[in-house]
Amino acid sequence: HETAISACYDAKAQVTGDSRLAPPTSITLPSRIRGKVRDQYHLPSSILLLTTDRQSGFDRSLASVPFKGSVLNQISNFWFKKTEHIIPNHILSLPHSNITVAKKCTPFAVEMVVRSYMTGSTSTSIWKNYSSGIRDYCGHNLREGYVKNVKLDETIFTPTTKDEHDRPISCEEIVSEGLMTKEDLDFCSQKVLEVFKFGQEWAADRGLILVDTKFELGKDENGDIILIDEVLTPDSSRYWIKSSYEERIAAGKEPENIDKEFLRLWFSKNCDPYADEVLPDAPKDMVCELSRRYVGLYEMITGEAFIVPEGGEEGVKKAVEE
């Protein structure tokens, strides 16, 4: 995939003049809502979700990563199918590797985050809070003595709000602030813990550690709670390589990761991604390395070879029209 990744990067930069941006799309459908990574198009009886190559972090766009959208969409579809015995989901069809047609639903105003390790670099992460002295985190009383990247005593549910800048919140606060009913929250928290456990076991059998993730859930038109958005992707989750974890932790090194954390760390070291108005361009070699990691993770999780999408934007437009 090396040549295809590099060629795709160069083509994006030539079209946009900015490696942080994905090439503009000329898809013309009503009710477009542009998200950090996904564009939504509301159809009469469903929603079309177009997963782009945009890479977000720190609540803003960082880069455009070749084939990322295709990988994310297909990994999500894989996990949706694998976990539908635990909770139903929004999938109706996948007409293209970047596109999902999904049920209409009303999302909950809470991101359902699950964590198993003391890590993270963002303002809402457990390590960022713990290392600054906070011990009451999302309603959990964290013990003393944790160091970065070690396993927590137990997997915990650590929700955040969906404000302009997310904030950690406890289950009690979610209910008291009217964001969810206790009944819905209890159901959702239990289900995401079950899906996470399933994902951890599947990943472990394939040489991976599923560290943490965030889920989104909502209610469909029948009032049933379903899993939506994306599931256990390298955007919504953190994955480490299992075989080298113990040795690297013992040596005081960062775990060998296969997600976007190394790109977040680069921005943290080279600028203030929360305060700086203009961010530097991520180096091409890092962006292409991230693309390789996404493709590699897809192949490790699914056991299938990644097929480079054909047709570019025209292929996406054709799938939409059909």
From TrEMBL:
One of its GO terms (biological process) is 'de novo' IMP biosynthetic process. Pathway: Purine metabolism; IMP biosynthesis via de novo pathway; 5-amino-1-(5-phospho-D-ribosyl)imidazole-4-carboxamide from 5-amino-1-(5-phospho-D-ribosyl)imidazole-4-carboxylate: step 1/2. GO terms for cellular component: cytoplasm. Transmembrane segments: none annotated. Its EC number is 6.3.2.6. Residues 33-277 form the SAICAR synthetase/ADE2 N-terminal domain. One of its GO terms (molecular function) is phosphoribosylaminoimidazolesuccinocarboxamide synthase activity. It comes from the Eukaryota. It holds the Pfam family SAICAR_synt. Keywords: ATP-binding, Ligase, Nucleotide-binding, Purine biosynthesis. This is phosphoribosylaminoimidazolesuccinocarboxamide synthase.
